[in-house]
Amino acid sequence: MIIQEHNISSREEPVIRIQNLYKSFGEKKVLSGVNLELYRGENLVVLGRSGTGKSVLIKIIAGLLKPDSGFVEVLGKEVPKLNDRKLKELRLKLGFSFQHSALYDSMTVMENLKFPLVRHKRNLSKKEIDQAVDSVLDSVGLLETKHQMPAELSGGQRKRIGIARTLILNPEIMLYDEPTAGLDPTTSIEINSLINSVKEKFHTSSIIITHDLTCAKMTGDRITMLMDGQFVETGTFEEVFRSKDERVQEFYNYNFIK
């Protein structure tokens, strides 16, 4: 099996469209009229403090949570209206990079990567599966780790393997949830570079959830700032942080980049 590259279309083609999205948990309002578009072939960073609803947003995109109201379309499908079968089909086109890598501790790296292929691509031969594992491990620079256990890997290596396991199903859209959380500065920069490499090599469109300004600056074609349940600024990194909004300036100053 050879990992296929997706065709790049016009930046004007949205692969995710969200309009007037609301979500509350009891009395707590989390998303209050969110509007968002992700264009094909771009990295969009959703930036904001912890607890502002960033992760809730990508769970709604993936159909893991139902919105209270609003329009959510992913790859031309209106997510809240999909039945279970259609939702599973759509999720195969979405790649999730979880904050804690979500690897199976009892499996080797190779077994972790084989698992989604065996589960979802039942027509593949053993040779094709082995080739796919080697190809995607090579893409994240960790081919030599395939016989190791997750406990033997560093935090940065586990993060890379988690991304590789997602890429092995050849998703069209990547959803990164706090990709640099808990990593040292040098390893964080390596993960940011990998996110950019994934976009170039696999032609993915990505939403990157983070509160890390270095991650946002390195990976984001566009940045959007989520505060108090709404997007308050959207643009390039420089455009967002030229904002006169005091909340945006406070966020920048607290996370100041030298």
Task: Write up what this structure looks like.
By secondary structure, the chain is of the alpha/beta class. It has a domain of about 140 residues: 3-Layer(aba) Sandwich (Rossmann fold). The protein has nine helices and ten strands. A six-stranded mixed β-sheet has the order 6-7-8-3-9-10, sandwiched between helices. β4 and β5 form a beta hairpin. α3 packs parallel to α5 and α5 packs parallel to α6. The N and C termini lie far apart (about 45 Å). About 40% of the residues are buried.
Principal-axes geometry comes out as globular
- Main beta sheet, described? 6 strands, mixed
Total number of strands: 10
Q: Report mean pLDDT, rounded to a whole number.
A: 90
CATH class of the domain at 13-93 and 175-182 and 205-258: Alpha Beta
* Beginning-to-end CA distance, first to last residue: 45 Å
Q: What's the CATH topology name of the domain at 13-93 and 175-182 and 205-258?
A: Rossmann fold
Which consecutive residue ranges, at least 5 long each, have pLDDT under 50? 1-10
Number of helical stretches of at least 4 residues? 9
CATH architecture of the domain at 13-93 and 175-182 and 205-258: 3-Layer(aba) Sandwich
List descriptors.
single chain; 258 residues; Rossmann fold; 6-stranded mixed β-sheet; 4-stranded antiparallel β-sheet; 9 helices; 10 strands; 36% helix; 25% strand
Blueprint (SSEs and pairs):
Blueprint: E1 14-25, E2 28-39, E3 43-47, H1 54-61, E4 69-74, E5 77-78, H2 84-91, E6 94-97, H3 109-120, H4 126-139, H5 155-167, E7 173-177, H6 185-202, E8 205-210, H7 213-219, E9 222-227, E10 230-235, H8 237-240, H9 246-254
Parallel strand pairs: 3-8, 3-9, 6-7, 7-8
Antiparallel strand pairs: 1-2, 1-4, 4-5, 9-10
Helix pairs in contact: 3-5, 5-6, 6-7
